[in-house]
Write a structure and sequence with these properties.
heterodimer; A: mainly alpha; two-stranded antiparallel ribbon; B: mainly alpha; 11 helices; 2 strands; ABC_transp_permease (chain B)
C-alpha cells in the first residue's frame, strides 16, 4: 500500500514536470497559480485543519508577503532576502493575531481575523507612499537562479514547482513530527491535550504563525508570477477563496488543499461558458457541497473507502450471539 | 453642540435598524449555533421582494410589504432552515460558515442579474420633514424608525417572555435536550426562530432601504455592522444586541463626521478587536461555559 502511494506521488510529480510542455503560455500560468495558492491553502490547513483554529486572514498574509517581495525586489534586493523578510513578518503578525485565539474560539476568531483582513486592506489601499495605493505596484521583476533568468513563464513555473515541493515536504515533516501531532491534539480536545503536557498556548500560537508564514511564502511567489499587485488581490473574498480550497478539498487531510486549490482555480476555466452566471453557479455549488458532504471531497473519499473496507469482513451477528450464550 | 445632538439622534435611528438585524443574528446563534454570514443579504433581499410586489405584480405598497414579508419568511426562514442549515447542523460550525458565505454571494448575484445592478429608490414610510429641538434638526423619519424598531423589539421581548411558545423557544435555546424531554417540539421552535429572524430582517429592510436605497451590494456593510453589534453587545443576549446596535450606529455616525473618511470602517473594526480581547462575552453578555 505504501509503495503504491509513493509510486502515485512520483507519477503526479512527473506529470507536473511534463505538464508545461503540453500547455500554451496561459495553461502554464494557470498551473503556476495553482501551485502558489496551494502553498497558501496548505498554511491555512495547518491552522484550520490540523489545529482547528478558523482564520479568515490568509489573503492578508499573502498580501504582506507579496508587498514585501514587490517593494524589496523592485529596490534591487534579491528575491530570497525578500522571502525571508516577508515570511518573518507574517510569522510575527501571525503570533500576534494568534493571541486572541488563546482566549476565544470559533466565530469570534473568524471575526478577529476578518477585521484584520479589512484593516490590512485599508493600509494597502491608503498608504500610497509604500504600496502605490489603489493602483498597486507594477513591474515586479522575476528572480534569477544561478545566473539563469526566470523571466520566461515555463522557467518560473519550474522555480515555483521547486519551492512548492520544498514547502510540501517540510509541511509533511511538520505534521508527522511530535509537534504536528500536538496540533491535532489541540483540534480534537484542547483540554485533554493540555492535561497530557502539551503547551497548548504555544502550539496555538505556532499554528497561527506557521500558517501565516506559508501565506507569506505564497505571496512572495505570487508577486513575481503576476508581476503586478494591487490591494484588490488580497481582500476578504480571496481569504474566503483560500478557506474554500481547504474545506472543499478536505480540511485536516494532507492532500486536501492540493485538490481544493486545483478545483477552485480550474473551475472558473470550466465555467467560462456561463459568463455572468459564473459566480452564481459557483456559490450554489459551494452551498450544495457543504450540505451534502461537509467534510470535503477527501472526507467523502475516505468515508467511501471505509464503507467498502468494513463490508469485506462481514459482520457475523450469529457468532456474536453464540459467544454470549 | 446642536450638531452633536443631531448626529447622536440620527445615529440612534440607524442604530436601531442595525439592532433589528443584530437581534435576528443572535437569535439564530442561540437557537441553533448558526453563525449566519449572510445576515446582511437577509436585510438586503426583502426590499427587492417588496419592489417585485409593487412594480412587477402592481400591488399597492402596503400590500407589497405584506407580500415581501411572506416571501421572506418562507424563503429566508423556512427554506433556509430546512434545506441549508438543518442537514449541516451535526457537522459543526465550519460548513455552516462556508455555506452562508456562499449563500451571501449567491443572493447578491441573483439580485444583480435578475433585478438590477443599479440602486433602486424605495418609498419611505415616514415623511422627510424635519423639526428643530435645541437647534438640532431632526427628521420625522429618524423618529419613526426609532419608534418602529423599539415597538418591534418590545413586542419580541413580550412574545419571548410572556407566551408559551416564546418560553419554549427560550428553553430550546438554553438546553435543547432538556426542552425536548419536557415535551417541547425543538425542531419547530428552531424553525420559528428562523422565521422571526426573517421577519426582523424584512422590517430592517423596509426601514433602511429609503435611506441607503435598495442595492444588491448593501448586504456587506449591513451584515458587518450586525456582527459588530452582536459581538459588542454580547452574543447570547437580545438586550446586548440592542445596545450594541445603538452604540455602533452612534459611533459610526460620529467617526464619519469627526475622523478621516478613508479609515472610517477601521474605527468599528478596532473596537471589535479590543472588545473580543478584553471582554469576549460582550458588554452585556455572560460567558458561556466550556465543555471537556
Amino acid at each position: 500500500m505504501k509503495q503504491l502511494k509513493i509510486l502515485g506521488l512520483v507519477a503526479i510529480l512527473a506529470g507536473l514536470i511534463i505538464a508545461p510542455f503540453t500547455q500554451a503560455t496561459y495553461g502554464t500560468y494557470v498551473l503556476s497559480s495553482w501551485l502558489v495558492f496551494t502553498v497558501a491553502a496548505m498554511g491555512l490547513n495547518l491552522t484550520l485543519g490540523y489545529a482547528g483554529q478558523i482564520s479568515l486572514a490568509q489573503a492578508a498574509f499573502m498580501g504582506i508577503g507579496a508587498y514585501s517581495t514587490a517593494i524589496m525586489t523592485m529596490a534591487g534586493l534579491p528575491w530570497i532576502a525578500s522571502v525571508v523578510v516577508g515570511m518573518g513578518l507574517c510569522f510575527v503578525v501571525g503570533l500576534i493575531l494568534g493571541y486572541p485565539a488563546l482566549r476565544v474560539q470559533h466565530h469570534f476568531l473568524a471575526f478577529v481575523t476578518l477585521a484584520f483582513t479589512t484593516l490590512a486592506f485599508l493600509v494597502m489601499r491608503n498608504e500610497e507612499w509604500l504600496t502605490g495605493g489603489i493602483y498597486g505596484l507594477v513591474g515586479i521583476p522575476r528572480p534569477s537562479v544561478a545566473g539563469l533568468s526566470l523571466m520566461d513563464g515555463t522557467r518560473y513555473y519550474f522555480f515555483t514547482l521547486g519551492v512548492f515541493v520544498l514547502a510540501s515536504c517540510s509541511f509533511w515533516w511538520l505534521v508527522n513530527s511530535p509537534w504536528g501531532r500536538a496540533f491535532k491534539g489541540l483540534r480534537e480536545n484542547p483540554i485533554r491535550a493540555n492535561s497530557l503536557g502539551v503547551d497548548t498556548r504555544l502550539v496555538t500560537l505556532l499554528a497561527f504563525a506557521i500558517g501565516a508564514a506559508y501565506g507569506g511564502l505564497s505571496g512572495a511567489l505570487m508577486a513575481p508570477l503576476v508581476q503586478y499587485i494591487d490591494p484588490m488581490s488580497f481582500t476578504l473574498i480571496i481569504s474566503l477563496k483560500i478557506l474554500l480550497m481547504v474545506v472543499v478539498g478536505g480540511s485536516g487531510y494532507f492532500f486536501g488543499p492540493f485538490l481544493g486549490a486545483g478545483l477552485v482555480i480550474m473551475l472558473p476555466e470550466f465555467l467560462r461558458f456561463a459568463e455572468a452566471y459564473y459566480l452564481m453557479i459557483y456559490a450554489a455549488l459551494v452551498v450544495f457541497l457543504m450540505v451534502v458532504c461537509p467534510s470535503g471531497l477527501l472526507g467523502l473519499l475516505s468515508r467511501a473507502i471505509a464503507a467498502i473496507r468494513s463490508r469485506e469482513p462481514a459482520e457475523r451477528g450469529d457468532l456474536k450471539e453464540g459467544a454470549q450464550l | 453642540m446642536s450638531d452633536f445632538l443631531q448626529l447622536i439622534i440620527s445615529g440612534l435611528s440607524t442604530g436601531s435598524i442595525y439592532a433589528l438585524a443584530a437581534i435576528g443574528f443572535t437569535l439564530l446563534w442561540q437557537a441553533s449555533q448558526t453563525i449566519n454570514f449572510a445576515q446582511g443579504e437577509f436585510v438586503m433581499v426583502p426590499a427587492f421582494f417588496i419592489l417585485v410586489g409593487s412594480q412587477v405584480l402592481g400591488l399597492p405598497f402596503p400590500v407589497a410589504i405584506g407580500f415581501g414579508l411572506a416571501v421572506a419568511v418562507f424563503i429566508l426562514g423556512f427554506v433556509f432552515k430546512r434545506l441549508v442549515i438543518q442537514p449541516m447542523l451535526p457537522h459543526g460550525h465550519l460548513p455552516i460558515v462556508m455555506a452562508t458565505i456562499a449563500l451571501a454571494i449567491l443572493m447578491r448575484e441573483l439580485v444583480k442579474e435578475f433585478y438590477s445592478a443599479e440602486a433602486q429608490t424605495f418609498p419611505a414610510l415616514f415623511s422627510e420633514e424635519t423639526f428643530t429641538v435645541f437647534g438640532a434638526v431632526i427628521s420625522h423619519q429618524d423618529i419613526g424608525n426609532l419608534a418602529v424598531s423599539a415597538a418591534a423589539i418590545i413586542a419580541l421581548q413580550l412574545f419571548m417572555g410572556r407566551t408559551r411558545t416564546g418560553r419554549s423557544m427560550q428553553a430550546t435555546a438554553q438546553n435543547p435536550g432538556v426542552a425536548e424531554i419536557l415535551g417541547v417540539n425543538v425542531q419547530r421552535m428552531v424553525l420559528y426562530t428562523f422565521m422571526i429572524n426573517a421577519a426582523l430582517a424584512t422590517l430592517a429592510s423596509v426601514l433602511i432601504s429609503p435611506i441607503y436605497l435598495a442595492k444588491f451590494s448593501n448586504g456587506e456593510p449591513i451584515g458587518l455592522v450586525a456582527f459588530l453589534a452582536a459581538i459588542v453587545g454580547g452574543f447570547n443576549q437580545v438586550r446586548g444586541a440592542l445596545v450594541g446596535g445603538l452604540l455602533i450606529g452612534v459611533i459610526d455616525n460620529l467617526s464619519a463626521a469627526y475622523l478621516s473618511s478613508e479609515y472610517r470602517i477601521a474605527g468599528p473594526m478596532i473596537l471589535l478587536i479590543v472588545i473580543i480581547l478584553l471582554r469576549p462575552q460582550g458588554l452585556l453578555g455572560t460567558s458561556e461555559g466550556r465543555t471537556v
